[in-house]
């Protein structure tokens, strides 16, 4: 299990764009289960929507992508960063609101060289709220 300090060492994201609070389970190179506590004071809720706050779907997908980045942050990929390439089969099923605990299950479904394909499922209280397939590349980090 990784806490917020380990997560911040693993990926470069910071507030307000760090969307993973804790790693709950991890099978290196295969799957990861993470948690995001959704709180009313997050900046996107000021405009989405002021009188009925809903977490934007694109941020739920970003939380899945960050989870995948954490999974590959120390898998012998020193000096490499993960770059998001694409998304397929994305579906949103239920609203995510302040006070919810978003659980993100991400698993590798294919790996060819430095190209990875993941399936992510986001849930709240055991109910699926979103799912997507994502592609990413491990970059050599020459910047």
Describe the structure.
The chain is of the alpha+beta class and 143 residues long. The protein has one domain: Thiol Ester Dehydrase, Chain A (Roll), CATH 3.10.129. It is built from two helices and six strands, in the order H-E-E-H-E-E-E-E. It has helices at residues 4-10, 57-71, and strands spanning 22-27, 31-37, 81-92, 101-112, 115-124, 127-139. Strands 1-2-4-5-6-3 form a six-stranded antiparallel β-sheet, covered by helices on one side. The longest helix is centred in the middle third of the chain and has 15 residues, at 57-71. The termini are far apart.
> What's the architecture in CATH terms?
Roll
Radius of gyration, CA atoms, in whole angstroms: 15 Å
- By CATH reckoning, the class would read Alpha Beta
CATH topology: Thiol Ester Dehydrase, Chain A
Structural class: alpha+beta
Spatial sequence of strands, sheet with the most strands: 1-2-4-5-6-3
How many domains make up the coordinates?
A: 1
Low-confidence stretches: none
Query: Largest beta sheet, briefly?
Result: 6 strands, antiparallel
Concise summary:
This protein is α+β, with helices and mostly antiparallel strands. The chain has a single domain, classed as Thiol Ester Dehydrase, Chain A (Roll), CATH 3.10.129.10. It has two helices and six strands; from the N terminus they run αββαββββ.
How would you summarize the topology of this molecule?
Elements: H1 4-10, E1 22-27, E2 31-37, H2 57-71, E3 81-92, E4 101-112, E5 115-124, E6 127-139
Antiparallel strand pairs: 1-2, 2-4, 3-6, 4-5, 5-6
